[in-house]
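Inverse folding, one chain.
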């Protein structure tokens, strides 16, 4: 068993001894009590030395520990140990200001999941922690771009459990451009959020590459306990290495893409790179030219189109032509005055 877990058992056992006003615990008593506590928890014998007990007591007394009011009392030639404050216990211990700040920050982060059905417990947990540790009210100091109204957010918890338990799923899915549902047998690997949507990634039977399915298009799923789970053999980091977003076109390799960016937009792109491969290859007073090594997918083109006239794809010619066609199609929507 890990040493830090042993330490937790020792501190809690010491706490029970030191807060017991009906019995005097000498060092030999503490050794026996703590050794028994570790055995009860782990099922194996533990050797506890006098030196370890004294180190634990010193730590519990210290500012780095619990600031416990542990006193020693002489009785003849022996010494017993007890809390000098009869109302003290580790359960009542108040956290220090630094610990309180860290806990409040952690609670702010947890509140990102507020509103997701599988994480309803967080609101109750937050209230309990505020009360237990006497934390002041948390303001809206940190906000997240979470879409709480996205369909099927309630599936997150169940899907995560199936992934952790390595269970194969039979899943029904209805895409935006299909009238009928498609059915898959999928070996789920992980969940990823992108652009406020959640996606399930896994290996579908009958396919050579991973499949990603947006949760809001999943209609139902069940676990197939009689179908052997296929373990993931590729890391997500490798899978997303040359991607912007989540979609990975089949049989398309990553390419070096040169993009010219007008100066007013450049500080934004510089502070928030389009992709980790981004590097500057030329810079003037009016423009900055960068190079990316990515697979040109839907999300790549969406970002380029989103920047409008502030960016220009220079190379390769095929990607430049694709962007040009997309811009011409967009412009055609405004060629005629339409009144609806």
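Residues assigned per position:
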């Amino acid at each position: 068993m890990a040493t830090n877990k042993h330490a937790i058992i020792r501190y809690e056992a010491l706490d029970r001894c030191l807060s017991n006003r009906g019995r005097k615990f000498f060092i030999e008593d503490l050794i026996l009590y703590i050794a028994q506590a570790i055995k009860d928890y782990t099922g194996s014998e533990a050797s506890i030395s006098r030196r370890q007990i004294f180190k634990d007591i010193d730590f519990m007394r210290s500012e780095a520990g619990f600031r416990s009011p542990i006193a020693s009392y002489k009785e003849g030639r022996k010494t017993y140990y007890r809390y000098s404050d009869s109302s003290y216990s580790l359960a009542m211990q108040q956290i220090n200001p630094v610990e309180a700040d860290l806990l409040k920050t952690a609670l702010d982060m947890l509140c990102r999941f507020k509103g997701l059905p599988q994480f309803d417990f967080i609101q109750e947990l937050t209230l309990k922690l505020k009360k237990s540790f006497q934390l002041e009210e948390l303001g809206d100091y940190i906000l997240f771009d979470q879409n709480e109204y996205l369909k099927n957010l309630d599936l997150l918890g169940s899907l995560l459990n199936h992934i952790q338990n390595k269970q194969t799923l039979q899943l029904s899915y209805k895409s935006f451009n299909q009238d009928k549902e498609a059915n898959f047998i999928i070996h789920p690997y992980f969940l990823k959020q992108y652009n406020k949507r959640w996606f399930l990634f896994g290996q579908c039977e009958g396919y050579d590459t991973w499949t990603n399915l947006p949760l809001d298009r999943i209609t139902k799923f069940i676990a197939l306990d009689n179908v052997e789970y296929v373990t993931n053999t590729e890391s997500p980091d490798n899978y997303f290495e040359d991607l912007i977003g989540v979609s990975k076109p089949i049989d398309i390799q990553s390419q070096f893409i040169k993009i010219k960016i007008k100066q007013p937009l450049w500080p934004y792109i510089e502070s928030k790179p389009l992709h980790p491969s981004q590097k500057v290859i030329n810079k003037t007073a009016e423009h900055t030219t960068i190079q990316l090594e990515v697979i040109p997918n839907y999300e790549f083109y969406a970002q380029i189109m989103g920047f409008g006239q502030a960016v220009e794809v220079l190379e390769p010619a095929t990607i430049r032509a694709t962007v040009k066609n997309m811009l011409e199609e967009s412009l055609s929507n405004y060629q005629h005055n339409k009144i609806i």
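The chain has a mean pLDDT of 84. The two ends are 72 Å apart (CA to CA).
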